[in-house]
Protein: Putrescine aminotransferase
Amino acid sequence: MPNTVDTAHIQSLDSAHFLHPFTDFKDLNARGAKVITKAEGIYIWDSEGNRLLDAMSGLWCVSVGYGRKELADAAHQQMMALPYYNSFFQTTNVPAATLAAKLASLAPKVDGRSFEHVFYSSSGSESNDSNVRMVRRYWDLLGQPQRKVIISRHNGYHGSTMAAASLSGMSYMHAQGDLPIPNITHIEQPYFFENARSGETSDEFGLRAAGWLEAKILEVGPDKVAAFIGEPVQGAGGVIIPPATYWPEIQRIVDKYGILLISDEVICAFGRLGHWFAYEKFGYKPDLVTFAKGVTSGYIPLGGVLVGDRVAKVLIEQGGEFNHGYTYSGHPVACAVALANLQIMESENLPERVRTDLGPYLASKYAALNEHPLVAHAESCGFVAGLVLVKDKRTGERFDPDLSVGMLCRKHCFANGLVMRAVGDRMIIAPPLVMTHAQIDEMVALILLCLDLTWQELK
Ligand code: PLP
Structure:
């Protein structure tokens, strides 16, 4: 690709004016940001003409790959017809209503419970703020206003607004801004590699980890607990895949105490784990499902909450006006792009392909990384995968965090044409769902190369 961008100029504008999310501003200014200028399929290019295989799908979102004309066409057509209108004052628009019905039809029914309603936002964070508002409203309307506490998990990620950052279990986020806000509390995550006892099986650990929820409910007081929220597989926390026993036991516990269950599927929905919605894979029955990212493959911001019958019935029949919403709730262009994106996913059969073909193929290739001297616990679930970089493979001894071993590995990835994310000492991927087997092979070969280079540097 010809280099038509003046990299130094863009970097200087960037340094002078753009405060990046989750970034040490001073550190970035000293380095200069990598300027991404173009993308096609599973690859992105920087302003110096370097091509990188994007094994993170942007930020877990570009599921159908880059450069899909159908999505650009849908946005263009909708912008010409109706670029914007609000949905506050008893008005709607064609894409928003059509998409809501489409999402309702895609969400699997479990034990007769269905999701007939959608509340729209523009992001995962906003959607989880909406969840907090809906959960509180639900219990108020049922005459149980004391049910305010939402239980979440350490190292879970639910977004970055005040409520969503509070639901998130990241101590480094809580340390800035007096978080969490009141009535949000956390339990330990189901991270087998870190939290299992010696000799404990994965299934045993899953039951014990779910038991931490029951212990917390009893500590808080069952009549004060409003909801439990969790990601089916923790993404930003480092792709933490729960044992098979975990979610069914969580379901048993929330049922026992009558509390609401929120499945935050901002990453896991729309085929990423091989299903339209991941609760189906793990066999649980949420009351609310958060979505964003993959609904538009990240081409335009859109998020929302699938509202199950249990909550919708109360909000609709007993609630009167719900004093909550966003300027861009049901944005026509975003919803039109989402419809075109879901159309691609359906016509290319992406959830099923991930479940029956691409996911198992990635799993076999990824598990082979366990042979590498630097790697422990390499595993995947659908089209997310993670591994731990360890100092001593035999004992599982971890590296000194000050060494930032993950960042070291990420540096080699960037230098060798691969985007892989580091979360502490975990290296993670969430590639586009449109990869071929040959591209999976290419990605895994690149990962191996970068592991080798990291290993050599550490020796
Ligand atoms: N929930 C989960 C599970 C996420 O992974 C994210 C973002 O990565 C969010 C919520 C927040 O989404 P957003 O960044 O669109 O606000």
Q: What stands out?
A: The radius of gyration is 22 Å. The chain has a mean pLDDT of 97. The CA atoms of residues 132 and 219 lie 21 Å apart. The pocket of pyridoxal-5'-phosphate is lined by residues 123-125, 128, 157-159, 231, 235-236, 264, 266-267, 292, 303 (CB under 6 Å).
